[in-house]
Design a protein that fits this description.
The complex is a heterodimer of chains A (260) and B (125). Chain A is mostly helical and 260 residues long. Chain A has 13 helices and 3 strands; from the N terminus they run ααααααααααααββαβ. Among the domains of chain A are: 77 residues, no CATH class; 78 residues, GMP Synthetase, Chain A, domain 3, CATH 3.30.300.70. In chain A, β2, α13 and β3 form a beta-alpha-beta unit. In chain A, α2 runs antiparallel to α3 and α3 runs parallel beside α5. The longest helix of chain A is centred in the first third of the chain and has 18 residues. Chain A is globular. The termini of chain A are far apart. Chain B has a single domain, classed as Four Helix Bundle (Hemerythrin (Met), subunit A) (Up-down Bundle). Chain B has 5 helices and no strands. In chain B, α1 runs antiparallel to α2. The longest helix of chain B has 26 residues. Classes of the chains: A mainly alpha (260), B mainly alpha (125). The interface between A and B is medium-sized, with 32 and 32 residues.
Chain lengths: 260, 125
Amino acid sequence: MAGAPKTNADDVIDRINAIGRDVAEKDELNIFAWNGIVRDLKKLESVPGLGETALLHQAVMWGMKLDRSKVKSLFAESAARFGKTQSWYIIRSNYATLFGDASMVVDLIDFGIGNRGAAFVAKAIDVLVSSGFYIAAWGFLLDLRKLDAKSAELIDARYPFLGFASDYISKSGLSDLEVSRRVLLSAKVVVDAGFRLRKFSISAGSYGVSVELSVAADLDRLVDLNFAISDAIASSFENLISEYVTTGVVPWEAGVDYAS
Amino acid sequence: MPVNHADFYDSALTFVEGEASNDSEICYRNSGSRAYYALYHRAKAYLELKGEKILKVESAGSHEALVSTFARRGFKSKSFAESLARLKRFRHECDYNLGVTITRPRLDLYLAETGRLIDMVDRLE
């Protein structure tokens, strides 16, 4: 069929998921595969009913390259052409860590999470946890238990610290936004230095909450990143909240999960 | 003074390096804990030498008071305070949170960071 895309949208999304897994698990971006996917997404843009998917997933692809400018322009183009839809809000909110911008998550919360079905709530909880919105994440997890107990169990297992962290932060007199701004600033420092964020590990106890970002870098570079995070927090906020919450980087280790 | 911060740091290293070391998580935990105390004592001695009073913090102990005192000094000290708090939390994980895995790469990072922070103390404004 001349001019028609060789692949359908599902196939392209499968390939995006595969390349995304390689990036997350091995810190490897196959440029040949990346180019092929972006080319096919551009073809899908003109297919009726697939334009928004094509644009939003191009943003995902450029996110893998940490290209903030392209990601921003693709979300703007999608909003202009197709409006700010449920997909737009949830996919865009994933990039709060790339931009260090809590407002992208606040926009998602303001759009509404709890009334959009269990799958959406589960995705939103992932975004909220990776962005430092622990109180909100815990609240939606309680909602999810009523909507879809199985899905809630999976999230409970993934984030065993969530209930404690939410309660601790709340009792410490902190807001989600205060915590999130520091978490996302730390993430931005890492991305500014040219590293991908691999994983967030959070531990919480009566001693406070520790948010650690896994980064594949050598030891000296990791120490530099931690100092850069401390400098950024010291210069950006009048008051430290380190008595309650600290952020930093740790070495990426395959299969190791610090969360507790 | 029978011991100083350097003795704590040396002790931290002996858990993971040298003849008596043991490549086990309990050694990583002990090492991480001693390393933090090396930094704590170095920072405390610095303020004492400067004649600066450590400010008490309501409902918190001497360690938080030290962090808080540095946080109220200049920019570099405030940044140092944030790093000190991060290492303090790692020490708490080493000593109290048995549900979290302390790995060698993670310990090595905190040992390296502690060493550089100890060297940095004299340059704080």
